[in-house]
Amino acid sequence: MSNVIVIGSQWGDEGKGKIVDWLSFNADAVVRFQGGHNAGHTLVVDGEVYKLSLLPSGVIRGKKSFIGNGVVLDLQALMKEIKILEKKKIKIDENILGISQSAPLIMSYHQELDKARESKINGIKIGTTGRGIGPAYEDHVGRRALRVCDLLNKDKLKDKIDSALSHHNPIRKGLGITELKTEFIFNEIESYSDFIKPFIKNVWKELLELQNENKNILFEGAQGTLLDIDHGTYPFVTSSNTISAQASIGTGVGLIKNCFNLGITKSYLTRVGEGPFPTEQSNEIGEKLGLLGKEFGTVTGRKRRCGWLDLVLLRQSVNISGLNGLALTKLDVLDSFEKIKVCTSYTYKNKLYDYLPLGIDNSDSIKTNYVELDGWNEKTMGVKDKSNLPTNAIKYISFIEEFIGIPVTMLSTSPEREDTILFQNPFKTN
C-alpha cells in the first residue's frame, strides 16, 4: 500500500488536474478533501479537454472516486458536471462516485451573500469567485449548515432550513436582499435530491476499508498552499485549509500511512484575484508569460497575474505542508526567455527575510531579491526524457531543488498526459 497527497504549492492553477490524472493510473481510488466548485482542474486526454470543478480527476479514468467531508458541495453544480461528462461518454454511477454524508451544502443564499459582500463599496475586495464557498464554510463552523445526510431525512429537513434562514434572513434584510421562505429552499433541494441520493456514502469508512486492503489512495487538493485560510496570504485566501494535513481531516481517514506529499508548482508564478504578489511582472514579461501560458482561470475565465518564480514562497509551502517532492509544470513557457529570474529573498523595512512577513496586503512595500539564470532558447514542449532537455533547463531545475531542499520528481512538458518526465514515482517511494 502507498498513498499520495497532491496539493498546489502556489496560489492554485498549478496544473494539478493533469498530474492527478497521470498518477491515477497507479491509484485504486481518488478523493477530494477540501474546497468547492471554486476550484478548476483541466485535463487533456487523447486530445479531449475536460474541465472539472467538483469531481475528483480520477473519474475520467474510471477510478473509484470520492468527495470528502471537507468539501463544501453545490449539488446543482455537481449534477451539471456529471451530466456534461456523460455526454462525453464518461460513465459516472454509484460504483464510481461516493459523496460524504457529512459534506456541507452550498445553497443559493450562500452565493447571493458572497456576491453581495464582494460588491460592497467599502468592504475588502478579496477576489472571490462568488460561488458561496466562504458563507458555506461559515455556516458549517456555526453549526447551522445543511449537509448531504439531510437529504436522507426529509422529516427534519424543513426544521433545519428554518434554523439556517433564521440566521440568513436578517443579514439579507440588512443588505437589501429579499428574505427567503423555507418552502423555497426545500423545493430547491428537492430539484436535485433524487439524482444525488445514490452517490451518498460513508466515505471515511470506505476509505479505511481500502487502506486495510492495501489499496493505493490518491488525495486530491484544490487551490494552493498560499491560499490556505491559516497559512496563506490572509485575508486574500480561500475559506478552507489547503495544506496536506487537511487530507486527513477532510476525509476522516485519520493519520494517513505510507504517504508521499507531492506539491505542484509552475515554472513561474501566477495569481487570480487580489492580494500580495512580490514577483508580479506588470510589464512585457508578465504579458509574455500570460500569453504563452494561456493564463486564464478555469472556473472564472479571469486573466491571471503573472511573475517570476518565487522560491521564498515555494520553500515556505514545502515546509508548511511537509512536501516530499515537487511536480514542475509549464517549463515550456520559459523556452524563449534569454534570461530567467527567480526570487531568493525579500527586503522589508530594511530587514532581509527568507519568508513572507505577515500583514503585507500588497507588494508595494517589499523588495524582491533575484538571482538571474541563463535561458535555454530550445523547445522543451513534448520532451519525454530528461536526457533530451536543454542543459540550462536542467540547471534551472537543479537550482530550484537545491534552494527548496526537495527533489523535482515529475516534470510536465505540455498539457497532454503523455508529455510527462518521471524522475521518481510517488506511489513507489514508501
How is this structure best summarized?
With 430 residues, the chain is an alpha/beta fold.
Main beta sheet: 10 strands, mixed
Q: What is the CATH superfamily label of the largest domain?
A: Adenylosuccinate Synthetase, subunit A, domain 3
Q: What share of the residues does DSSP label as strand, in percent?
A: 15-25%
The order of strands across the largest sheet is 7-6-5-2-8-1-9-13-17-18
Counting H and I runs of at least 4 residues, what is the number of helices? Answer: 11
Mean pLDDT across residues: 91
What is the CA–CA distance across the termini?
9 Å
Please describe the topology of this protein.
Layout: E1 3-8, H1 16-23, E2 29-32, E3 41-45, E4 48-52, E5 64-67, H2 75-87, E6 97-100, H3 108-119, H4 133-141, H5 154-174, H6 182-196, E7 200-201, H7 203-212, E8 217-220, H8 246-249, E9 259-266, E10 269-271, H9 284-293, E11 305-307, E12 309-310, H10 311-321, E13 325-329, E14 339-348, E15 351-353, E16 366-374, H11 391-404, E17 408-412, E18 420-422
Parallel strand pairs: 1-8, 1-9, 2-5, 2-8, 5-6, 6-7, 9-13, 12-14, 13-17
Antiparallel strand pairs: 3-4, 10-11, 14-15, 14-16, 17-18
Helix pairs in contact: 3-4, 5-6
